[in-house]
Amino acid sequence: MTPAAGIRQSIAVVEDDPAQAALLCEFLEAEGYLPRPCPRARELAELLAGETPALVLLDLGLPDEDGLALAARVRALHQIPIIILTGRGSEIDRVVGLEIGADDYLVKPYSLRELAARIRAVLRRSTGAALPAAVAGQPLREGFRFDGWAFDKLRRRLTDPKGNAVELTVGEFDLLAALLAAHGRVLSRGQLLDMTRRGHDAVYERTIDVLILRLRRKIEPDPAHPRLIMTERAIGYHFAGAVEVVSAG
């Protein structure tokens, strides 16, 4: 699904370096997006009070707030996709960034071509995350049912046994989709990485564990003692619950 002709998706550019911010905004304009420069956390808060951008590009080194803390605050209030852009290349920073809900992480220096690909992938996977109530309430036509839950692949929606929508990040949704599709079969971290993150950076295999923890907190009655998403030590994970496949065909 793409925006209607003439409608540009806005992207918040949270970057305090004027030269870098100008470069990113010029690049986004050329790619057909509407950049919204936010040199500090305060400007991002003001932007989010008035509109919901399609995506946030977030630098971690901000003058008025730690970038990871800002990402956590944005994720707690919004389901806007977040791509972290930073010079912090340590594995712990990457894992923490993804653990708090970022959808991708790109270390400087990066190529603008790769950034464009990452943006397109995240936006493509986030399409349908927010739907009108009339659409969201339609019957499940393609997806999975498990333990009273409904996973709608077409509308990218997860509903709990009480009928409440449960918000998932792009990464969480794609990971759960992969586990449900392979229910009963063990998938390695590498396989899950390829199926959910398009194979970016081998170091990201560790982040599958982070996404698993986040999913367990949302769907397991007792995340400390899971019974749906099970760990196969030194191998990977599998979905152990009974799964009903719903097909539009």
From TrEMBL:
Residues 141-241 form the OmpR/PhoB-type domain. The modification 4-aspartylphosphate is found at D59. Keywords: DNA-binding, Phosphoprotein, Transcription, Transcription regulation, Two-component regulatory system. The keyword Protein transport does not apply. Residues 141-241 bind DNA. The keyword Chloroplast does not apply. PROSITE patterns: OMPR_PHOB (PS51755), RESPONSE_REGULATORY (PS50110). Coiled coil: none annotated. It holds the Pfam family Response_reg. InterPro entries: CheY-like_superfamily, OmpR/PhoB-type_DNA-bd, Sig_transdc_resp-reg_C-effctor, Sig_transdc_resp-reg_receiver, WalR-like, WH-like_DNA-bd_sf. Residues 10-123 form the Response regulatory domain. It comes from the Bacteria. This is Response regulator transcription factor.
